[in-house]
Amino acid sequence: MSLFFSIAPIILLIWMMTKHQGVPAYIALPLTALVVYALQLLWFNGDLLLLHANVITALVAVFTPITIIAGAILLNKLMQISGAENVVRNWLENISPNPVAQLMIIGWAFAFMIEGASGFGTPAAIAAPILVGLGFNPLRVAILTLVMNSVPVSFGAVGTPTWFGFANLGLSDADLLEIGRQTALIHTVAGLVIPLLALRFIVSWRQIRQNLPFILLSALSCTLPYLLLAQVNYEFPALLGGAIGLALSVLLARANIGLTRDRTPSTAQPVPFGQVLKAMAPTLLLIVILIVTRIHQLGLKSLLNSSALLWQGSLGWFGELSISKALIIELQQVLGTSAQASYKTLYVPALIPFLLVVLLAIPLFRLSGQQVHRIFGDTTRSIGKPFIALLGALIMVNLLMLGGDNAPVMIIGRALADTTGASWLLFSALLGALGSFFSGSNTVSNLTFGGIQHSIAVSSGLNVNLTLALQSVGGAMGNMICLNNIIAVCSILGITQAEGKIIRKTILPMLVYGAIAAGMALILAF
Questions:
Q1: Mind giving me the DSSP string for 145-202?
Q2: 133 in helix, strand or coil?
Q3: Distance (Å, whole) CA 258 – CA 252
Q4: CB-based contacts of 192: which residues, under 8 Å, 6+ apart?
């Protein structure tokens, strides 16, 4: 019965969001969180104080995704109102009027690089509005960017899911490197298929077949450098692979290599380089700031994550509050329990780089006070419902993870392992995907389920590094159905009540990804 009550809320949530005329996320998620709360009290004998403490920590944790969403919307509104979006659109149309080329350059290669620099859901946040500006359907763009942003994720934010996600397992650097190598190899094979499935949500199979050489060359221009770098490093494969792939994809498109020639004359007027540079300045500055603040060798990353204490005080029975010199706000010992949460004010990509870039761009584009008011007003009005939906999601996740070895997520994980037995490698990636569905993060999925995967591998005599690589691959492919990412991209594009429809669409490519991972597991195990 514990398994039934563990999985019932997830089934309820999926049913509510994917049924005909599905329940909006800002209603379905809080309702599911309430169900989990009741089950924790009535079936799992959860401690009342600990339950309430985790609700409070969810309220703190929600500021990470919601401020990123707000920052991305803010930049999107700036690009629209300033006219920069039109300039970028005309420039891309001059590179190639072919929609497949545009989708691969922005939706694949550009997003690949951004994922490597930052993660945190920023690839879709930056790439999706550009594609919508090119005239593509917003809902279809949301689906495409979610599916595309899977291959680079295991090495997102300068390898955080790999080096930090498995940090609690006490692995050697050689083990982490081997995990990274196998992870990259599986992703590289999937990278030959996933872009095709993503493109199909926007263009026809005929267009895909006609432009297949370019699609494969663009895909490989990212994944081959990515695979090669993973042989010696687990931090930079996505970042450098994406940068190389973006440059090569643009060159291929300019030379019309592997693309069908569009017989319809382009209506795009040539755009002077100075105008393009000015219009792209906010995005370029954003990328530069993301890179220099994420590469720890440059020193800024450690400064922005400094835990050196600036102020600490007691909030009485409520908990302990501290602020570091890097403005990390941390709430500890909430309601006298072990629950805690923090917000990295300067490191979360919200104030830096999104707000900073917008503030710098206002004088660059000579925006009026009325235009600035419209940018910030539209952004504020856009984040109300996403805030409620994300808060519901985080409360649900926090409560599902309560209970140690008897937590609902652990019960589900063990049930999957027990059911599959010696064939666990075929299903290992699905557990990683489940972790991303819950938490919205490949890193958190690895932290949560890495221990279970390690234990299963040891007890079953399986290759430990391969099992953990499959866990990481699963956490990446789970980004396609991750509620946090879906809510974020819908909010940025102004799409309402489509979360369930998106999950129904993205679940198939995720399962295809899982099948590829299972096939690679059989090959790599021997």
A1: HHHHTTTTGGGHHHHHHHHTTTGGGT--HHHHHHHHHHHHHHHHHHTTTHHHHHHTTT
A2: helix
A3: 8
A4: 216, 219, 220, 223
Which residues share a beta bridge with 352? 349
What's the CA gap between 204 and 292, in Å, rounded?
A: 39
Cα separation, 386 vs 66, in Å, equals 7
Please state the pTM of the whole predicted model: 0.81
pLDDT tens by residue, 454-487: 878 887 889 999 999 999 999 999 999 988 789 8
Distances (CA, A) of 3 to 36, 414, 416, 483: 13, 10, 10, 22
**Amino acid identity, position 298:** L
Each residue of 334-376: pLDDT tens digit? 999 999 999 999 988 889 888 999 999 999 999 999 999 999 9
| Residue whose structure tokens are 């390690």 | 454
C-alpha dihedral sign at 434, 439, 444, 449: negative
Which sign, positive or negative, has the C-alpha torsion 44, 45, 50, 53? positive
**How many Cβ atoms sit within 10 Å of the Cβ of residue 115?**
30
Return phi, psi of residue 129, to 5°: -60, -35
The string over 65-92, giving b where at least 16 C-beta atoms fall within 10 Å of a residue's C-beta and e elsewhere, is bbbbbbbbbbbbbbbbbbebbebbbbbb
The rounded distance, in Å, linking the Cα atoms of 507 and 499 is 12
* Bond preceding residue 363 cis, omega within 30 of 0: no
